[in-house]
Amino acid sequence: MTTQTNTTPAPVRPTEPIEPTELARPTRPTRLNLAKTAPKVFRALVGFDAAAREGLDPALVELIQIRSSHLNHCAYCLHMHTNDARKAGESEDRLHLVPLWCEARHFFTPREQAALALTEAVTLIADGGVPDELYAEATTQFTEEELAHVLSVILTINTWNRVALATGKLAGTDERA
What we know:
It is a single chain. By secondary structure, the protein is an all-alpha fold. It contains eight helices and no strands.
């Protein structure tokens, strides 16, 4: 009786992180560039995004954008906003826990938890809307004006996620000027 042994070598893991520019980028058919094809529409989205952020803590804005991008499976926006959050001083621990914030509440303030819960409800609106209890909790954490801006940030990132996904944007190719 002979026994076969697996002679396939174990994959070698790099000791240093690989930068996206070092990896072979997937090729996709060229899709339209919204900024060039519909510049008025694109400028309106940029203006909406800028107005939405006004008066909010930039770190909170990034957490909202990261969570929505996770839920929408938008690698382009997720890559962009995790990098922006790091540049703004966000910790790696918190960035890694954003998708599981409910299980790691102690990493997030009550205000951030309310914003993340609202982000999930609005992003997944077709799954049951925004529950009254969740909305009521958000009103205890934000003034009416702040809540309007939090909702607006959630709406803008959901729009940007859809633009990036529909136009085939690739993670690691931040096209902001």
